[in-house]
Write a structure and sequence with these properties.
Blueprint: E1 13-16, H1 20-31, E2 36-39, H2 48-51, H3 72-77, H4 87-99
């Protein structure tokens, strides 16, 4: 019995976590026609980049390598401001992708 009014009665997949991997899995499964729901314990998406917002937090991999490559549109539209993005910019990127 489904007592949670937020979740549909039938899902093909339930993804736990809305970080980079969770968002990509959501994209892939929906692209194959699956009914999918993603759950996140935080108030926003981003996983590590949502939770770790201490001063100076940034990626140690070049930003372009740390972004999704499944969409040419995303790659063309998003422009990183730094070679090694800071936490706020990475979080903005993830929200931008989720809004697409």
């Amino acid at each position: 019995m489904n007592s949670d009014p937020i979740l549909p009665k039938m899902l093909d997949a339930l993804i736990v976590g809305a970080g980079f991997s969770g968002l990509y899995m959501l994209y892939c499964l929906r692209g194959h026609g699956f009914t999918v729901k993603i759950l996140e314990t935080g108030d926003g998406i981003g996983g590590t980049w949502y939770w770790n917002c201490y001063p100076g937090a940034r990626c140690d991999v070049e930003s372009i390598q740390y972004s999704y490559s499944f969409s040419e549109e995303l790659e063309e539209e998003w422009k990183w401001s730094e070679s090694f993005a800071s936490q706020p910019e990475i979080l903005r990127y993830l929200n931008y992708v989720a809004d697409k």
